[in-house]
Amino acid sequence: MNVPYVYGIAMILFGALFLVKTQGGITSLYCDIEKLIPCLQYGDPAVRPPSRDSECCRNIHEQEPCLCMFWRDPEFQEEFDTPGAARVARFCRITLPNAAICG
After folding, report:
1. 46: which of 10, 26, 66, 88 is 20 to 30 A away, CA to CA?
2. Predicted pLDDT of residue 28
3. At what angle do helices 55-62 and 83-92 cross, to 10 degrees?
């Protein structure tokens, strides 16, 4: 294959990725609120908190770039402002979104 041709294709792909990223679209490509479902059970103080290697913590770390997007959605925003969410965040060592962070 011709090297300049491969280089040209790589530059086009990089440019497209840059445009998507700068438009905020790259985050939405990987965001999936359903990945946080395993965390719901840990909102209950009667349930043992999640371990840092639990599916909940792994998924919340994977979705961390998406948390502000979820927080801005009125359907999910109030879920982040609960004692249960704060508990999960503390045990998974993650900062919950809020107006100061996501503005």
Report:
1. 66
2. 55
3. 90
